[in-house]
Amino acid sequence: MEPLLGVKIGCLFALLLLTLICGLVPICFKWFRIEAATGRHRRVLSLLGCISAGVFLGAGFMHMTAEALEEIESEIQKFMMQDRKRGEFFW
């Protein structure tokens, strides 16, 4: 096994462990339970939920945008090649 592969696998497991720990920490605290929250705490929890939803939506849209731009670029290249073969330009 290459040394770099070992480092990558180690980082993968470290990232998994860190994600699990950070994701499960709020379960241990009463402050993060929505049924125990009142007033200001409920608003803060709602705001945190909205921010996390925005992060996931933004990541999804960025992923889709990159693929869409790649497809659009290839279609434009095909269109340009067809016009060059005919000797016509649209501008």
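Next protein, fold it too.
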Amino acid sequence: MLQSVSYRCRVRGICTTRHVRDNKVPAVRRFWRSAGVDERSGKYVVTLDNRPIKTPNGTAVELAPSQKLLAWLIAGEWETQSEFIGAHSLPLTSLVCRSIDGLGDATVRADVVDKLLKYFHTDSACLHEKYPSVLVELQQRHYIPIVEWARKEYGIEISLTSDMFALQQTRESTETLCAVLAGFSPLKLAALEKATMSAKSLLIGLALVEHHVTAEDAAMAAQVETNAQTQLWGLLENAHDIDNAALRQILGASACATIGA
């Protein structure tokens, strides 16, 4: 795996500052002067020094006319890189590549849908504790609006419980959501996959990629338990700050990836 990473860096002209050693991926130096967006053959491409970016598998990244804003956001990710490419600093690019290299395959798509549906049966938005009061208040404020939206939007039953092991959603509701997810474009499904895994909630992920909630709303819902603990016992300095920033970066990218999708 490490050898393949090093090989890809070489063939794409990426300059590494040190060899792969101690199981660490090498730092990757910025190798382009400017990033931009071009319209070619009716589609938008993100360019580095006028050359279009490609996925790790070598497929051209082409965006539909409705995704012009997304193209510029991706270009912005590359333009804001400093001397070295920051770890996890290209979230939109990562989602687009995932949609092309991975979710363009029907078998992979089906596997991802099955994986996401499992979150529905352990969904954090459906787990409602009865105490302490600060947690109950946050659950009511952030979980209930999303649950009610999903019930109305998809016409499904959604069970709520305080016991994770007792949570069980109906087969009809699961099949309805399965059909919804199967109809998503590869990019929208990639965004949902990342948002759901980060928020530990399919319902929060759906509300985000369907633009019912903002990335900040989704983050607040995903962090209900953490925020309740913070109010009770205080902030764990540095650790919580990092978690907060990382979560919002992921959810923000997932929301932006569905613009024009």
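About the second fold: Confidence is low (pLDDT under 50) at residues 1-23.
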